[in-house]
Amino acid sequence: MMKSFLAFLAFATIFYTTEGLIFEPFCSTDADCEPNECCERSIVLNSCKPRPGLYDYCNSNSLTLTGLCPCDEGLECVDYNQNFVFDVVTGDSWCVALPDV
């Protein structure tokens, strides 16, 4: 029993200390990430990812099961409604330039 506990403790320590080296940093909100990143939702673990650039896939719908980040500054996430299933699971949008006003 003690060996199992020590093995678990060793694994947890290694996993925790290598989180930022091997794995993407975990997050719960955008505030946990760098200014140019967002907390990308996942079914298993959320992680900080760079905000998408021009014509990259994005997500601005908080109702999706998993999600991509919203667009970087100066860009807008536009839904192109290609596939309902894809839209519900990850979002069905891409980043485009904001129109000149």
Automatic annotation (TrEMBL):
Per the record, GO CC terms?
extracellular region
Keywords annotated in UniProt: Signal
Leader peptide range in chain numbering: 1-20
Membrane-spanning segments: none
What does the entry give for GO biological process?
digestion; lipid catabolic process
GO MF, one example: enzyme activator activity
Q: What is the protein name given in its UniProt record?
A: Prokineticin domain-containing protein
Organism this protein belongs to? Branchiostoma floridae
